Amino acid sequence: MYEKNITSMHLDVLKEIGNIGAAHAATSLSTLLNKKIDMKVPKVEMVTFDEMMDLAGGPENVVAGIYLRIEGDVTGSMFFVLPVEQANRFIRRLVQDEHFDFQTGEISDIGASAMQELGNILSGSYLSALSDFTQLKIYPTVPALSVDMVGAIISFGLVEVSHVSDYVIVIDTAINEEDVPNEESVRGHFFLLPDPESFEAIFNALGVN
């Protein structure tokens, strides 16, 4: 398995790319929310599927998850997973509706659109930075939104990849808003699951062999 050869140097490169993507995403989110946003990628690591579930709070933890496929020179799957209470707080501020709640059953169109837009901005910024660095063509599909238990959301996307890969790249994401207390800031995870041949394509293009 190619993933077994991934070193801390590879992960440092991905973290650097993540921070460049985060800076682009922060600019877009600042425009969207009309306030200063600071965004960082504090950590990038390589984990197994079981560890990925634990990082997201365990398979039965309810989260707002965005799933998309990556196409082009690199193929794979990508998830953005956010604890549901954090997603609620963020979307309430975004749509100016204090009563919005992902867990009331019926998700309003405006709330779903806002969450998908957040997913679009974050995944688009990260993949665009990865594409700039590698000079590979990388295109995200339109993200699908789901509010469910972590196990259910991730199983949906893993059907295609679990038989060919055992590892996931985890990109921690911290979004800090002006005038919002630190404990209310958004702390989510990106789970990047390149198809096996794409691991090699990414690192070859980065010159890290």
Number of helical elements? 6
**Largest β sheet strand count, sense and barrel closure:** 8 strands, antiparallel
CATH-assigned fold name? Chemotaxis protein chec
- Helix % is 40-55%
Spans with pLDDT under 50 lasting ≥5 residues?
none
Q: Identify the CATH class.
A: Alpha Beta
**Alpha carbon gap, first and last residue:** 14 Å
Q: What fraction of the residues are assigned to beta strands by DSSP?
A: 25-35%
Q: Taking Cα atoms only, what radius of gyration do you get, to the nearest Å?
A: 16 Å
Question: How does the helix and strand content classify structurally?
Answer: alpha+beta
Q: Which superfamily, in CATH terms, is the homologous superfamily? A: CheC-like
The count of β-strands is 8
The dominant shape is: globular
Our count of domains comes out at 1
Q: Mean pLDDT, rounded to whole units?
A: 82
Oligomer: single chain
The ordered H/E elements are HEEHEEHHEEHEEH
Under the CATH scheme, the architecture is 3-Layer(aba) Sandwich
Task: Kindly summarize this structure in a few lines.
With 209 residues, the protein is an alpha+beta fold. Helices cover 43% and strands 27% of the residues. It has helices at residues 8-33, 49-55, 84-95, 109-134, 150-158, 196-205; strands at 37-40, 44-48, 62-72, 76-83, 138-140, 144-149, 167-177, 186-194.
Index terms:
single chain; 209 residues; alpha+beta; Chemotaxis protein chec; 8-stranded antiparallel β-sheet; 8 strands; hydrolase
Please provide a written account of the structure.
- The protein has 209 residues and is an alpha+beta fold.
- The chain has a single domain (2-205), classed as 3-Layer(aba) Sandwich (Chemotaxis protein chec).
- Helix content is 43%, strand content 27%.
- The chain is built from 6 helices and 8 strands; from the N terminus they run αββαββααββαββα.
- It has helices at 8-33, 49-55, 84-95, 109-134, 150-158, 196-205; strands at residues 37-40, 44-48, 62-72, 76-83, 138-140, 144-149, 167-177, 186-194.
- Strands 1, 2, 3, 4, 5, 6, 7 and 8 form an 8-stranded antiparallel beta sheet that branches.
- Helix 1 (8-33) packs across helix 4 (109-134) and helix 3 (84-95) crosses helix 4 (109-134).
- The mean pLDDT is 82.
